[in-house]
Amino acid sequence: MNHVLLSQAGSYRDITQYLQARGARVTVIGPDGAGMRSKAAIVRAMLSPRLWRCRGLWTRQDRLLVVGWQALPLLALLKARLLPRPQRLLVMACFIHGQRARRVADRLLRWLRIPGLGFIAFSPGEARHLVQGVGMAPQDVFCHLWRQELDGRAAPQEGEGGIFAGGFSNRDYDLLLEAAETLDEPLVIVASQHNRIRPPARASTRILRDLPETEFEDLLARSTVVAMPLRGAGEACGQSVLLRVLRHGKPLVATRHEAIEAYLGADYPGFVPHDDVHAMRSALAGVLAQPAWREELAQRVRQAAQVLAGRGEPGAEIERFLHG
């Protein structure tokens, strides 16, 4: 039998609902509610007594998918044999964007490895770290392009002009603010309360926090171009915003990052180097001023959306990994 343990209720529905419809048992071992959480909230959830809901859930013949950082205390319980070790245990959605945190997590995961353990990586960088830093065998690390059908779908909009940027993880919004200072078009940033952003220098820039998904996507749909300023380090990031870019066919200017290359291809012409204010400014200015260039980027985005749709249901891919 397959089991799914969620660290947050309602997360990864396209995967969990697919598996549940095929007989998997889904158990929430983290807090209720959705949305971005701080690092402190994640640590508190890892120490939650809800982990004891796992007692008696599975046998040694079952397969287990663990979503989120509750995987660490769960692995400790399995390592200590306080819970039965399942036949197969896959862990996914444990993202890290800092080098110090990555080193700590690598040491913990090396110590907590058990037979039958595998990982589902959402970016090439994450997969590489699991092999090189944790010592996982390559055949026990599976790469998955996340492609959940996100809530908050907005109707296609006529562009009202301007630059849109949004999202939480691994963002460099201060770089974008500096890049946009000399541009004429307005800029809207929709960030999390956890993002630290300096006050904008111009009146045509708005910084909004934690908008409902429909409002978030409506602003994206009304923009002329979407900017994605990412930091050079980090693993999976930017993908939830990218999925909205894909379904609206918006031209995208993004910091080059493996997590985004996996969807758009390394040769996507809208990438700029990280930590390069001038490159971000020049790329955005070119897209805003040149309709033909905007259309070329939008066409590449639409092609990427078609390729992603052809990969099939995400839950089916995860089910293959569980039984692989």
Please, what is the oligomeric state?
single chain
**Regions with little confidence, pLDDT below 50 for 5+ residues:** none
Strand order of the largest sheet: 2-1-3-4-5-6
How many individual helices?
12
Q: Using the CA coordinates, give the radius of gyration.
A: 20 Å
CATH class of the largest domain reads Alpha Beta
Helix content: 25-40%
Q: What spatial form do the alpha-carbon principal axes imply?
A: elongated
Assigned CATH superfamily of the largest domain? Glycogen Phosphorylase B
Please give the number of β-strands. Answer: 12
Write down the domain tally.
Answer: 2
SSE string, helix = H, strand = E?
Answer: EHEHEHEHEHEEHEEHEHEHEHHH
- How can the largest sheet be summarized? 6 strands, parallel
What is the distance, rounded to the nearest whole angstrom, between the alpha carbons of the first and last residues?
A: 14 Å
In CATH, the architecture of the largest domain is: 3-Layer(aba) Sandwich
β-strand percent reads 15-25%
Q: Helix/strand/pairing class, anyone?
A: alpha/beta
CATH topology call of the largest domain: Rossmann fold
Mean pLDDT across all amino acids: 91
Protein name: Glycosyltransferase
Keywords: Transferase
GO molecular function, one term: transferase activity
Organism: Pseudoduganella guangdongensis
